[in-house]
Specification:
Layout lengths: L1 H15 L2 H21 L4 H53 L3 E5 L5 E5 L6
Antiparallel strand pairs: 1-2
Length: about 120
């Protein structure tokens, strides 16, 4: 298991590091090949190269998307319960009639008042 962990770390460093930079490079390579295709549209080698570049570019975009999706899930797991706890504590205080509100009068000055609660 330890040997596999070392090998996976090396693999991840090679294939998953700097995904955003790799997406930019792949996009530029695709654009360059497409510019050459405008000049010579019937070159079979260029068409194959374009297809390869498209495949690489879309694969890297998917990897970048998944990385961002995983990061947002981690953020939710770390902070989501905090925000849920705050929401429920505010809801509880509102039900008990101990909520505080911030209101503005006509002169746009803030007034802190103690709310009367919803009386649930």
């Amino acid at each position: 298991m330890k040997r596999l962990k070392k090998v996976l770390k090396i693999w991840a460093r090679e294939h998953c590091a700097n995904i955003s930079e790799r997406v930019i490079v792949a996009k530029q390579k695709l654009v360059d090949v497409q510019k050459l295709l405008v000049i010579n549209a019937y070159d079979v080698a260029l068409l194959e190269e374009e297809n390869k570049c498209k495949k690489d570019f879309t694969g890297l975009l998917k990897m970048e998307y998944e990385e961002l999706r995983q990061k947002t899930n981690c953020t939710w797991m770390l902070n989501g319960d905090k925000y849920t706890a705050i929401f429920h504590s505010l809801l509880k205080n509102t039900r008990l009639g101990t909520s505080y509100g911030l209101y503005r009068d006509r002169e746009e000055t803030n007034i802190n008042t103690r709310g009367s609660g919803a009386g649930w």
